Amino acid sequence: MENVTADAHERTKDYLSDSEMKLLLQASKKTRYPKRNYLLLLMIYRHGLRVSEAVNLKKSDVNIKESRVWINRLKNGLSVEHPISGDELRAIRRYLNSRKDNLPWLFINERGLPLTRQAVNYITTSVGEKANLPRVHPHTLRHSCGFYLANKGYDLRLIQDYLGHRDPKHTAHYTRVVSSRFEKLWS
Length: 187
Description:
- This protein is mainly alpha-helical.
- The protein is globular.
- The chain is 47% helix and 5% strand.
- The N and C termini lie far apart (44 Å).
- The longest helix has 14 residues, at 34-47.
- It has eight helices and three strands, in the order αααβββααααα.
- Strands 1-2-3 form a three-stranded antiparallel sheet, with no helix packed on it.
- Belongs to the 'phage' integrase family.
- InterPro entries: DNA_brk_join_enz, Integrase-like_cat_sf, Integrase_catalytic, Tyrosine_recombinase_XerCD.
């Protein structure tokens, strides 16, 4: 049998479009913990978080006054501070105002413990099913962030820094398949 390998850009679609992301976020509002789940999925998407980065977020990482969040990247990634947009800031306030605890973690379960990786996987998959978006995983949202930024025309280096990639080859995937690069080829 011939050993055939595909380039990374030849994989199946592993991200959500803007409209699919909106469907996912709307579906998160119809869950048992709508404020937490909406914010969780929004922040994973907006900041390109890995699951472990999301579950490790602390309330102290969020600076509401200055609309900033400290992203402590894992896997030897570049840790950076990201801005928080208005709708995300409102979602953070709504979620934190609904909590009656002094626990340090941003995302907690009903027992007052930080969400686990398995819980985030379950939340993401089940909300994806509610939104009729099959095979949605937390890493799908990280990829969706990268593709969103590439489709907006941001350069490879900015996307690399934003996602915390040390090696640009990990970021190149987003810019290689972005359709907007081809828009004016035949006009």
